[in-house]
Amino acid sequence: MAAATVAAQEPPDAPPSQPPSASSATEATTDSSLWHYGAYLDLSYDLNFNFPSNHLFRSRTTAVRTNELDPNMALAYLRKDATSDSRWGMEFGVQGGYDSTEFAFLQGEPRVNGYDTLRHFSRANVSYLAPVNGKDLTVTAGLFNSLIGYESLYAKDNFNYTRSWIADNTPYMMFGVNARYAVNERFTATAFVINSYYHLAHPNDQPSYGTQLAWKATPRLTMTQTVYYGPDQANTSMEFWRLYSNHITEWKSDEVTMALAYDFGTENLAGQPGSPRAFVMGGALFARWHVAGPWSVAVRPEFYWDRNGRWTGNQQLVKAITNTLEYKIPSGWTNTTLRMEYRYDDSTGKQGGFFKGGETRPGVIGLTPGQHLMIFGLLWTFDSP
Fold it and tell me: Which of 27, 183, 196, 301 is deepest in the core (most CB within 10 A)?
């Protein structure tokens, strides 16, 4: 599941931000122990009580199919950790399934050539751990996990089975280079240069930029602020650049984790009369309690306001609540996780609503403000030590 601080954006299959270093020959890490490999399979049945004839969760890109058994994700990966004894690292992973189809675009955006092949890569990067003034500087280049957001593309890394609205409308991955520096034990700074907000979108040939600051205020409390700034339209004049801000505050105890996320984004829309300013804002509270043994519960209230429909494709205000019951079955290098989840979404606004029933006229399915979902998920993971 997604963890906090800088690791709030790093799922368990990613290398730690500050790899352990060996202090003696007996503690030295062997080359073989730095290599890891694994696999992941995600199946679900999402019961949609609106029973839309197209089987779709409107305005979404993950867990989008309903009222059918769906292979949402299959993943295989290979990773080498970077440490003070072996400073080069790498990640490579491939994926497939419904969740890998539309996760890397905004509606109507131009796409990179070969996107239908490239979407099957989950990771493809190299990294180098360099000592700078006695601290760790980690430089990573290629396709890496997004520095924006609390939740992962992969349900196994999250508290809930379905992802939040802010997660589904921010990048799950980035393509470019990032440099992360551990200033001290409590403060980490990261800068990144990437090809675009979504790595498989191609609105222009200009790069985008960002930074992240993570502060471990106490052993249990971490605050992370990430800012993205770049051109995401054909017109690359700075007056049309997108600004996006993501803030996360996480509190963590042995059995309970709570995180509050607040996002906002804005840009002037080129090519429209008056270049109107698009604005989006969302927030979510992520809470998980390990009850006992294999049992855990999670709850996530949230809201998402897409004033101009730039992010979801529809002008709407969404309020949602998601409740998840989890049972985990470990066995050797594998984990089988069963999740049962109830989710209610309410969408209002000029273009709000969710699909309901059959066609009201040829090619048009009716809409209704509310949607109740009951979700049954099976998550199987294999991870080498």
Answer: 196
